[in-house]
Amino acid sequence: MSAFSAHGIEHLSPSSINEFSSSQALFVLRRLLKKPTGTVGSSAHRGTAVESGVAAGLTNPSASLKDCVMVALDQFRLLTAMSTDPRKEKEENSIAGFVEEGLKALKPFGVPTSTQGLCTMKVDGLETEIIGYYDFLFPNGVLVDLKTTHALPSTITAAHARQVALYASVLGPDIKPCLAYVSSKKSNLISLENVQGHVKALSNMALQVQRFLSLSEDPVVLSRLCAPPDVDSFYFNSPEARQAAFEVFGI
Fold first, then answer.
1. Which of 43, 108, 124, 157 is deepest in the core (most CB within 10 A)?
2. How far is CA 151 from the centre of its chain?
3. Which tens digits make up the pLDDT trace of 81-137?
């Protein structure tokens, strides 16, 4: 039995690998011990909703901005119907601006040939696959991952670079990968360089996850090998995550 099967993990993803790198404790709590660590916040739902609105406008060029915004708002309201997040209203009010800026940034590339495409990567020595889903692939080979944020970064984050490098590596050498960072007022489109370097980093991190899981089939034992989590980090903003950290790590 593989280390992943022993822990009920069917595959890895850039997000799970990045989570392991940022907080092994959270990885163990959420993915091995199956502890509740809080629902996804309004900002994450905003990202999903904005992407749906932008996709509606890109795949149907005749759609009006108003139509695209309504697609995004309907999605956001559905995803946050039971949410008590105090940021919910602020995020909902910003969605129209995000969709407008997203369409401005991506419409010049034309109609995408595919959206939400599955990419699967195999790594030598890794007992499972790494999978991810890209956002938009355009006819000229431009691959765009859309990231919504209230504060635009000037460079691609390492975590996002590894994620998009996975897609570009799987899709082939003619792909032109980039990140579209979009706020409600402006956008920043940044090309990804050194794809193979980022893929190597992702692969090495995945193998480190495997080595960690191989230490024991008992997640409680693995939790004792983790440094206590920093409960002041954003990973532990929710009461559920803090409670899980208290139950397992006593902090």
1. 43
2. 17
3. 988 888 899 999 999 999 999 999 999 999 999 999 999 999 999 999 999 999 999
Span 183-228, pLDDT tens digits = 999 999 999 999 999 999 999 999 999 999 999 999 999 999 999 9
Give the burial string for 48-86 (b: 16+ CB within 10 Å, else e). ebbbbbbbbbbeeeebeeeebbbbbbebbeebbeebebe
Would you put residue 250 in left (φ > 0), alpha (ψ -120 to 50) or beta? left
Strand partners, 114: 137
* CA dist., res. 5 & res. 204, Å (int): 20
Contact 4, 127 (CB under 8 A): yes
Verdict on whether the full-model pTM lies above 0.85? yes
**The two structure tokens encoding residue 239:** 């009461």
Q: In what side-by-side order are the strands of the sheet with 114-121?
A: 114-121, 130-137, 142-148, 176-182, 187-191
DSSP string over 62-129: T--HHHHHHHHHHHHHHHTTT---TTHHHHHHHHHHHHHHHHHHHGGG-S-SEEEEEEEE--TT-SS-
Cβ–Cβ < 8 Å for 160, 178:
no
Angle at 127 between CA 124 and CA 133, to 5 degrees: 85
